[in-house]
Automatic annotation (TrEMBL):
The keyword Lyase does not apply. This is Multicopper oxidase domain-containing protein. Residues 127-227, 254-350 form the Plastocyanin-like domain. InterPro entries: Cu-oxidase-like_N, Cu-oxidase_C, Cu-oxidase_fam, Cu_oxidase_CS, Cu_oxidase_Cu_BS, Cupredoxin. Coiled coil: none annotated. It comes from Paraconexibacter antarcticus. The keyword Membrane does not apply. The lineage of its organism: Bacteria, Bacillati, Actinomycetota, Thermoleophilia, Solirubrobacterales. It comes from the Bacteria. Signal peptide: none annotated. Keywords: Copper, Metal-binding, Oxidoreductase.
Length: 351
């Protein structure tokens, strides 16, 4: 993290909220606000040469999508990035500490939303995280991405394989069209899920306003399942992230799980005794988080039994276990300040 200058006592005590969040078009955006005018910032960013050439149809066509491996299939998605009115604390309560939450918690989020083929109809609301992109070993993921935001945006995947043209990342003057999808434009990404890409990975915006759109909600998960292996009975996706005043315009920072703060608002995860449970934990902010699940332990990749793991920015970690402990449990980030600023939730196991 960059320190823009001496950190005063107030900022130090507020957990670094006065620190630099990012720089866009030469403007320094602070975590504690104010929220900038995004369209004004975007207007200052020049269209990269290859993006302009593609608009004028002066670029050769993109390479064809990689063919699925034998036995694999082409899995096509239609995903838009949209504005959505979002409430971080809909119940206005913190059930962990049994107290009201009076802070203003509604803002305009930017989220991914899944549509039927050809962007026919939305398949649900725009959400934080966005729709999970499912594949199996050997498949090709084809994602038609439509940008309905007022600023350029993208989809950038982790874990799967792709050519530089399919990176979905803004790279200044070297930017490919995949890294600068203008408002109203549609781009088709194709990503290769061949053997070796299995796992749960994040995808997120990586456009010219990076990481601002991510801080406003533009992220989701890719699950490449190993072919021929039995699926878990339940998959839970837990994104640890923060919604900060510099990106929300709200007065206070919220520590979130899937866009919500405090037990009763964060997802209530559920399972039954006997089920095989997979929980996928992804870090999607500047902070390091730790995942802790009450009443449960699992075996880590090194064979050790653990009940608390560290998940850094853009890390993903999957824990699996067979459920044998019914009751109402907590799952939470064990960084204590994060926990008490809302990074906790219920895990309910039925007998
Ligand atoms: Cu945390």
């Amino acid at each position: 993290m960059t320190f823009p200058g001496p950190v005063d006592r107030r900022n130090f005590l507020s957990g670094g909220a006065g620190l630099l969040l990012f720089t866009i078009a030469g403007e320094r955006i602070k975590a504690d606000g104010p929220e900038p005018e995004w369209t004004k910032l975007a207007d200052q960013i020049r269209t990269p040469p290859k993006v302009r050439a593609a608009e004028l149809r002066q670029l050769p066509g993109l390479p064809p999508a990689p063919a699925p491996a034998p036995g694999g299939v082409r899995r096509e998605y239609w995903i838009a990035a949209e504005k959505v009115h979002w409430n971080i604390v809909p119940t206005r309560r913190d059930e962990m500490m049994d107290r009201p939450v009076k802070d203003r918690a509604k803002f305009t989020a930017w989220c991914y939303r899944q549509y039927t083929a050809g962007f026919g109809a939305p398949m649900g609301p725009a959400t934080m995280p966005g729709p999970t992109l499912e594949a199996e070993t050997g498949d090709t993921l084809v994602v038609n991405f439509r940008n309905k935001l007022p600023v350029p945006a993208t989809m950038h995947p982790h874990g799967v394989l792709y050519s530089p043209e399919m990176d979905g990342a803004y790279k200044g003057t070297y930017t490919d069209p995949s890294g600068f999808v203008k408002p109203g434009a549609t781009f088709q990404y194709s990503w290769d899920c061949r053997a070796g890409t299995e796992g749960v990975w994040p995808y997120h915006d990586h456009g010219p306003l990076d990481p601002a759109p991510l801080y406003k909600g533009l992220f989701g998960a890719i699950n490449v399942r190993p072919k021929g292996v039995a699926r878990p009975d339940v998959d839970h996706y837990v994104f640890f992230h923060s919604l900060l005043p510099g990106a929300t315009g709200l007065a206070k920072p919220f520590m979130c799980i899937n866009g919500r703060s405090y037990a009763g608002n964060t997802p209530e995860l559920r399972a039954k005794v006997g089920q095989k449970v997979a929980q996928h934990v992804i870090g999607m902010s500047n902070d390091f988080h730790t995942y802790h699940l009450h009443g449960h332990r699992w075996t880590g990749p090194d064979g050790r039994v653990v009940d608390n793991v560290t998940v850094g920015p853009a890390d993903s970690y999957t824990l699996t276990f067979t459920e044998d402990n019914p009751g109402r449990w907590f799952y939470h980030c064990h960084v204590f300040s994060h926990l008490h600023e809302g990074m906790n939730g219920w895990y309910v196991v039925d007998p």
